[in-house]
Amino acid sequence: MIYYSPPGGGTRLRSARELMVAENASSKTCRKELVDRQEVPDKGVPNGLIQSPGSGSSAGREFEPRTKRALTEEMDISLLKKGGTYEVNSESGNTYVVDLLDSSCSCPDWQKRKPENGCKHMRRVHHEVKNGLVPRPDGKLPN
User: How far is the CA of 22 from the CAs of 27, 30, 42, 62, 97, in angstroms?
Assistant: First the structure.
C-alpha cells in the first residue's frame, strides 16, 4: 500500500495497481516510483524477471535491468493480430512487433542477443497482459 496525496490535499492509502490506474496521465512517473520502491505487484512481473528468487511479494528483490526499463520506459502496447502479436511503440520512437507465442521481437536487442526472459518490449507486453491492460493473445478483452 502507498500513501497518496490526491489533488486538493489530504492523504489516501492506495494499492500500487490502483495508483497506477488512477493516475494514468502520470503513469510513467508512477511506474518508476513503484519499481524504485520494489512495489510492483508480482502478478505484473513474469516469472524469471527478478534477480533474487523468492516467494510472495516482490519487496526486497531487485529487478533485472531489462525488467526495470520495461516497467519504467514509456511504451504503448496494442494487439496487432489475434494469436499473440503485439505492436510496441517505444519511448525511442521506434515501433517493434512482439509475438508472445513465438517468443520473439523485432527489436535489435532480441535479434542480436536473444536475452533470457526476453527483451524489454516482450517483458512489457507480458506485464500489460497479466495486468489486463491490453487484450490477451486470443484477442479477448481483460475481465
Answer: 9, 10, 19, 25, 28
